[in-house]
Give the backbone structure.
Amino acid sequence: MTPDDLTPDTSLSAACVIVDALLDGEAVDKQALRDALDDRATRDYFVDALVLRQLTHEMAPMTFTVAESPVARTRRPLQWVMSAAVLALVATGGYLAGHRREMPPPTADALVSAASEPGVTAPAPTKIIRLDPGVSWTTETARQ
Amino acid sequence: MLFTAHRDGVFRYLCRIVGQGEAPDLTQEVFLRVSRGPVPDIPADALRAWVFRIARNLALNYRRDTGRRPHLVALVDTSRAAPQETSAAMRQALALLAPLDRDVFLLREVAGLSYEEIGLSCEITVDAVRSRLHRARQQLRIVLQPLVSNGSTPTVRLYDPR
């Protein structure tokens, strides 16, 4: 069927003008509307036009929504899971690596054996300067 | 301001012209264009018509560039159509309309523009809007006769899409 095949009587009758105006929110003359609706064909047209309006509204959503592509919809949770897995892997790996390199704590035996080794000598004592009260360290004699 | 006021209307209109997949991007493109240039100092109704003219031009360009003409395929059995099939039947029936008739119909029924606003958007007279709107309704009635007469919508409501 092509548009050429559709040859309805599209001439605008007075009754249809009234009904269309009513349907489209225009002001109509009351008596003219009564007269128009007296005709059965016009009443049918009126009801059918309302059904068409309803069907047109049901075709698609009525409010603006930014549709997400199906790919993006499936990819987003996957990205979160992947990120969480990588983080967990890095944390676990870091912990294990650190755990392996950690030195054992020194035991008491180890301290004793190190001090008693023959090659180990204690360092010479440092020179002790007695602090005499009343001595001025800023004077030349005191420095010498 | 303009985005908040008209985004849903533009989106609804574009959804039915280019499909639900492309409509969000095109809606954003409409308002990008709106924001790039100076907003004309005109009344609110004319401003709405101006926004929809941009939307309509973008939709036309999109369809021309992508070559996505509406497919003229066999209509589904609309007498026992499921909701998805109802939408498909509606899309197919809209595809059968002349492009300007379809635009006029959708600007009215989906975007809720007045006759004057549609006239400004499509650059036609108000009388031409009336005539094309009526013709579109009549043609859709014929194509969707089983759905309209015996469809799954036992109730109707008189409401203004605005």
Observations:
- The two ends of chain B are 18 Å apart (CA to CA).
